[in-house]
Specification:
Blueprint: H1 11-26, H2 41-51, E1 63-68, H3 71-92, H4 95-101, H5 112-115, E2 118-125, E3 127-129, E4 135-137, H6 141-158, E5 162-163, H7 172-177, E6 184-193, H8 209-212
Antiparallel strand pairs: 1-2, 2-6, 3-4, 5-6
Helix pairs in contact: 2-6
């Protein structure tokens, strides 16, 4: 153990910092319309490192961020994703899921996977290699990776870029295409870049505090 480094802030600064952060995040929107404008690799590295500051079960950090800018590989990824998505939209999608997707205008065409300059695929590590060469389990890997994804998304927004949480279903093809080991499972596909000049977003509202919280005082 080492000492915690922590500096108390005046209450008004805490409130101001919290409000500014909230207002910044309220401006975050998910778009499927990306510019092809390049994004330097170091910005993606910074976002990944920010995601990696997330707490994790037993501090095992059970995530792998695979970042892709290679145009040929992005095209192969898009082709495979669209093939799966077409089957989902045409054959596998439950009516209840189709109902909630309708206002978002989604379909099987995934231009964001080739337009965005970067595609980051987040893999969950289901087990870990011990120092003695034997495999052991990870713990709370799904929850840990979910938190890491949220912090990655916040970092992308804070830098002035946009991203999209894409979950092609099923996602097994990503493990093969990206040559990941058998103990890793794809969780999220996150295109990252600048929004297109004509980018659109759904006209949606976020739930109010009273709809998402309960306080006991």
């Amino acid at each position: 153990m080492v000492p915690l480094v922590w500096h108390e802030r005046p209450m008004e600064q805490m409130r101001d910092d919290g409000r500014r952060f909230l207002e910044d995040l309220r401006g975050r929107r998910t778009t499927r319309h990306f510019s092809t404008r390049p994004v330097p690799r170091d910005l993606i590295e910074t976002a990944i490192l920010a995601g990696g500051t997330a707490p994790s079960g037993a501090h095992l950090q059970p995530w792998t961020f695979v970042a892709i800018s290679n145009a040929e590989l992005k095209q192969r990824l898009r082709d495979a994703a669209e093939a799966e998505e077409r089957r989902t939209y045409e054959e596998r999608m439950p009516e209840a899921w189709r109902e909630v997707l309708a206002p978002l205008g989604t379909d099987a065409i995934k231009t964001h996977l080739t337009d965005a300059p970067w595609v980051v695929v987040l893999f969950r590590q289901n087990k870990r290699l011990r120092g003695n060469g034997e495999w052991g389990p990870t713990y709370y890997a799904t929850e840990s990776c979910g938190i890491a994804a949220g912090m990655f998304i916040a970092a992308v927004h804070r830098m002035g870029l946009v991203t999209l949480t894409h979950t092609p279903s099923p996602m097994g093809f990503l493990q093969t295409l990206l040559e990941r080991p058998g103990h890793e499972t794809a969780m999220l596909v996150l295109p990252v870049g600048y929004p297109a000049e004509d980018a659109k977003v759904p006209d949606l509202a976020r739930k109010a505090l009273e709809d998402v919280s309960v306080f006991f005082e």
